[in-house]
Amino acid sequence: MEVTTTKGRVGWGLLGGAVACATKFLGQDLYWFRVFIETRETDKLTGMIASYVVLLIILCFVGSVVAAATLETQKFKLLAIAVAAPAMITTYFGGTGGQASKVRLGDFSPISFAHAQEISRADARKDFWEGFLITFGYGKDRSLYRVVVASYKQKGDAEAAAKKFAMKYPDFSFSVAEKRPDNDFYPVIVGEWQLYGDARKLKDFVTTKIGIEDAFLYPYSP
């Protein structure tokens, strides 16, 4: 059945824009979506979702305009045109590949993750915009993380825990990192800052092989 009305072509154009948006997400940003889930960067995740709402509106508008302007009447060709037009926009946005591991929560840490990763409102706004802009290709080269195995409010308690871990697991390097200005807790870490893929592998190994089930990834914040 042919499409003979402008309204019909606009409808296929909207569908094409949505397909182009979904293709970009699956091909470029699903990786980062899963990273933000695993590292519990909820504000970045919120920013990324907001950016995709904006991007969906833009791509659907572009797709509908191009489809409406064409004289094509075949549905398949209309859809192909509507997808191709906004897709030219998404090619300017960089992406990366990878696979985030499944998040596993345990009872090892003496405090909740909410306390361990509590951030100020200013940092929340900063993280929101970092998540928003990553959809458009900004910040994808900054992906350093470290593996946190526990957090303590008193530095002495954190140092005692690090020594206990080191004695029990001598093949690994445990230490106490400095607490962030907006965080009252000292993190006990294993290893140092690493790229996401390497940090994830260490976290998975620590979780599955030596039983520290509450280990999680902590993002680098310049």
Sequence of strands across the biggest β-sheet: 2-3-1-4
Report the strand count: 4
Q: Mean of the pLDDT scores?
A: 77
Question: Mind summarizing the main beta sheet?
Answer: 4 strands, antiparallel
Please state the structural category: alpha+beta
Q: Counting H and I runs of at least 4 residues, what is the number of helices?
A: 7
Rounded to an integer in angstroms, the radius of gyration calculated over CA atoms is 23 Å
Distance between the termini: 57 Å
* Beta-strand fraction estimate: 5-15%
Write the H/E string, N to C. Answer: HHHHHEHEEHE
Give the overall silhouette.
elongated
Low-confidence stretches: 95-119
Helix content: 55-70%
Keywords:
7 helices, 222 residues, single chain, alpha+beta, 4 strands, 55% helix
